[in-house]
Structure formats: C-alpha cells, structure tokens
Design a protein that fits this description.
- The structure is a single chain.
- With 204 residues, the protein is of the alpha+beta class.
- The chain has three helices and 13 strands; from the N terminus they run H-E-E-E-E-E-E-E-E-E-E-H-E-E-E-H.
- It has a seven-stranded antiparallel beta sheet with strand order 4-7-6-5-2-1-13.
- Strand 11 and strand 12 form a beta hairpin.
- Helix 1 runs antiparallel to helix 3.
- It is globular.
- It starts with a helix and ends with a helix.
Length: 204
C-alpha cells in the first residue's frame, strides 16, 4: 500500500512539474524570438550561428553596433568552418545582452528576415576570425577596405596579419527557430526521466 502511494505521489509531482515547466517555457517563448543563420562562401568556407531578442521591446529592425550593453539582442553566436566542414573558430559576440566585440555590426529586419550590416566574430588577437560585409565596413569608416564582393571571411594568422579566407556575394540566410521545437524537446527530456524513474521503481 505504501509503495502504491509513493508511486502515485511521484506521478502527481512529475506531472505537475512538467506542466509548470511547459507553462514557464511557453510564457518565455511568447516574448522571445530566436533565429539561426548561415553563410557559405564561393570556395566552401562557411559560417553558422544563432541570435535571439525580446520581442516585447524590440523594433521591427534590430540594429546593434560596438561593444557594451546591446539595445535588443540578448545573444549572438557564430561558428566558422573550412571547406571540409572542420571547425575553425567559434565565438559568442553577444551574451546576456552585452557585446564583447568592438567591431560588431548587426542589422536584421524582422519583417523581411533580411540581414543588412553584418560584422560578427572576434578581432582582438592572432587566430581570430570574423565575417563582415561592405555595408558594415562603410558604417565603421573603413571605406578604403571595401572589396569587389560583398561578404568577406577573414582570419588573423599567427603573425597577426589579416588573411582573407573567402569572398562571396552570397548573403547570410536567416531562419526562425520554431517555438514548438523547444517544448517538444522539454517534453522528451521529462518523459525520458519519468520512464527511467518508473523502471527504477518497478525493480525496487
């Protein structure tokens, strides 16, 4: 009898916890927008990343520049890959609403889901990598560095000299992360935990 009561109590607690977690997640999702982005150069180099912001305070066009507290972005991360899809570098220029990249330029129109100014990565020391476009260079005052192709993937070599890895007119493609995917993931994790505990309880 005591064993049955324990199992029933466990089910109630687990179900309640799951419902609460979903409610909290759903509430957060209602105020958040998360996007993935990717870029591929003409010779096979590529970049992938993600960003998110609070929709309750953000305008239709998200625009960020420089280091310090951001206006809208909560996070922004990017990873770079060579033509064999081997990771070159990975950075998080924006974390918890603070930019640590002084050359950051990020412009995103949420209505058209198009990228404008773009300079994302890290450029502080040897080995750093970043992806930018001519729009960002002009905005930063580096008009003399504007190149024939719109996007430039650049890395600082061991000597600290800029090395162009790839040039391309291919734009950065953006896709919104489905809100339901996060809830489905949460359900899967909670369901797995519930199943494992049930099996453990039945063998006790």
């Amino acid at each position: 009898m005591k064993h049955m009561f324990t199992k029933t109590a466990f089910r109630i607690v687990t179900t309640t916890s799951l419902m609460l977690a979903i409610a909290i997640t759903t509430n957060d999702l209602a105020d958040a927008a998360e996007f993935n982005f990717n870029w591929k150069g003409d010779t096979g180099y590529s970049a992938k990343g993600s960003f998110n912001y609070d929709t309750t305070t953000a305008p239709s066009v998200i625009s960020e520049a420089g280091s310090g507290a951001t206006k809208n972005l909560q996070s922004l991360s990017i990873s770079f890959f060579d033509p064999l899809n081997t990771l070159i570098n990975s950075f998080t220029p924006v974390l918890s609403g603070v930019s640590n990249y002084k050359y950051l330029r990020f412009n995103f129109d949420s209505t058209t889901q198009q990228i404008g100014l773009f300079d994302v990565g890290k450029d502080n020391s040897r080995g750093d990598t970043w992806l930018n476009n001519n729009l960002a260079l002009i905005n930063e005052g580096f008009s003399d560095q504007v190149l024939a192709k719109e996007f430039h993937l650049i890395k600082r070599d061991a000597a600290g000299k800029e090395q162009i890895l790839n040039l391309s007119n291919n734009s950065v493609q953006v896709s919104k992360v489905p809100e339901g995917s996060i809830i489905i993931g949460l359900l899967a994790v909670c369901s797995l935990g519930f199943t494992l505990k049930q099996k453990k309880a039945s063998t006790a």
